[in-house]
Specification:
Layout: H1 2-23, E1 30-32, H2 34-44, H3 46-64, E2 72-81, E3 104-117, H4 121-187, H5 193-227, E4 236-238, H6 251-261, H7 263-283, E5 289-300, E6 308-317, H8 325-391, H9 397-432
Parallel strand pairs: 1-4
Antiparallel strand pairs: 2-3, 3-5, 5-6
């Protein structure tokens, strides 16, 4: 019995030790790449799902618009009892002698009807429903582009903030190295107390800058998490390479492509076509309506009527006068078309303007990357030179601290320019509707 207790304890204690050790292991951060973020955002975005439902609704409306082209089958049944006695109420009975004595009549009518001509009203409504469906599909593309730009912008902003954290950590290490060197020289009696205090101030500022950069990075991560629709309490991180974009193009080719393919412009073109169909629908009120019907009527004084009448009917209707509504409805529909054409022209103008501005911003961001690359090179060389002189006792602490600060600023501006260049490219892709490979 004692041996069994010892053996069980020998099994439980190592297991408890493993569990306790696992408790203190830090949880690995969930790293998300740009492709992962885009796929998640496009798959989980609420506004994309909302617009997808609008597309479904317009599709169902288009399918239902076929009904007026199909024949219609109607069944009617009625029962009538007259209050005044000795009043004939039926002309279709199985026995005409009952017409003077009957106070009850049962009627059953079946008909198949089909509209032969309506002035193009049915066609206009169906074509309009189809164009609404096409318009909503173009709006879906536009919404998708907005979501794509938002997630790319947020991701590159977060990636830039992460890189800035890394650069400020490097700046803190350089400042710490300068502080340690100054403190050693002060203890040896070579450096002044003021030099040590200046190094301490710069070290403290570097720690403050690092803390601020970390908070900015955390804020940018929240934006990414919100856009990709995830709820996680654990560590979250973005993963990717922040590099200079290589895309090059000219304004004319970008503008021509956007004016031909951009969803906002296609949406407005579909809207003009739809309003033209509304105009056709209003205009159809000026044409006659021709209907045909095949009808059978049974009417009798008994519950199952025997009296039968078969008829083929062709009807022609045209309102000679029904006010001024028909005229002004047509005029109003044409005004809607003209207004939509002006909106299309304005959409094209703003699209061209957005492309011009986005292209200038992108070109400027590329130049900034090149300039900051050169600035980092010069600042690094200057810092190394002054640090070597200070180690030899020839340099000045103020010049060294200033060169370190300039180097840190150049590094931050460099990675910031890379992030801004990627965001500028994302906006240019959105404005000109290019680069969508997702």
């Amino acid at each position: 019995m004692v041996n069994m207790h010892k053996s069980s304890m020998g099994f439980i204690l190592p297991l408890l030790a493993i569990c306790l050790f696992a408790t203190f292991i830090p949880e690995a951060a969930w790293s998300v790449t740009l492709d992962d973020a885009i796929k998640s955002a496009l798959g989980e975005s609420y506004i994309i799902k909302e617009q997808a439902e609008f597309v479904k609704r317009s599709r169902f409306s288009y399918i239902s618009s076929i009904d007026p082209f199909l024949p219609r089958v109607d069944l009617d049944s009625s029962y009538i009892r007259t209050i005044s006695p000795m009043t004939p109420i039926s002309t279709y009975t199985s026995d005409l002698r009952d017409t003077t004595n009957s106070r009850d009549v049962y009627t059953f009518t079946g008909s198949i009807s089909w509209r032969i001509f309506d002035g193009g009203e049915r066609w206009a409504k169906r074509k309009g429903a189809f164009l609404v469906w096409e318009r909503e599909k173009e709006r879906f593309k536009s919404v998708r582009e907005d979501v794509l730009f938002n997630i790319k912008s947020a991701f590159y902003t977060a990636l830039g903030a992460k890189s800035i954290v890394g650069k400020r950590q490097e700046a803190l290490q350089s400042t710490q190295k300068i502080y340690n060197l100054t403190r050693g020289r002060y203890e040896e009696g070579v450096a002044k107390k003021s030099e040590l205090l200046q190094a301490e101030v710069r070290l403290l500022n570097a720690k403050i800058d690092l803390q601020r950069a970390r908070k900015e990075y955390e804020k940018s991560l929240e934006s990414v998490k919100s856009l990709i629709i995830i709820q996680t309490a654990g560590p979250f991180d973005v993963e990717g390479l922040l590099s200079e974009p290589s895309f090059r193009s000219d304004y004319k080719s970008l503008n021509d492509r956007a004016l031909a393919t951009k969803p906002e412009i296609k949406t407005q073109e579909k809207e003009i076509d739809r309003l033209m169909r509304v105009y056709d629908e209003k205009k159809s009120a000026w044409f006659p309506k021709i209907d045909s019907a095949l009808q059978q009527t049974r009417q009798d004084t008994q519950f199952f009527p025997g009296g039968r009448s078969d008829a083929f009917i062709i009807s022609f209707s045209f309102p000679l006068f029904d006010g001024v509504g028909r005229y002004y409805n047509v005029q109003g529909a044409m005004s809607d078309v003209n207004a939509a054409r002006q909106r299309l022209a304005e959409t094209k103008r703003t699209t061209s303007l957005d492309i011009a501005r986005a292209l200038k911003d992108y070109e400027l961001s590329i130049e900034d990357v090149r300039m900051y690359t050169e600035l980092v090179r010069e600042a690094t060389s200057n810092f190394n030179q002054l640090y070597g002189e200070y180690m030899e006792g020839k340099g000045d602490i103020l010049n060294l601290l200033q060169s370190e600060k300039d180097l840190a600023s150049a590094n931050e501006n460099y990675v910031g320019s890379l992030a801004r260049a990627q965001v500028s490219l994302s906006f240019l892709e959105k404005a000109a509707y290019i680069g969508d490979r997702w």
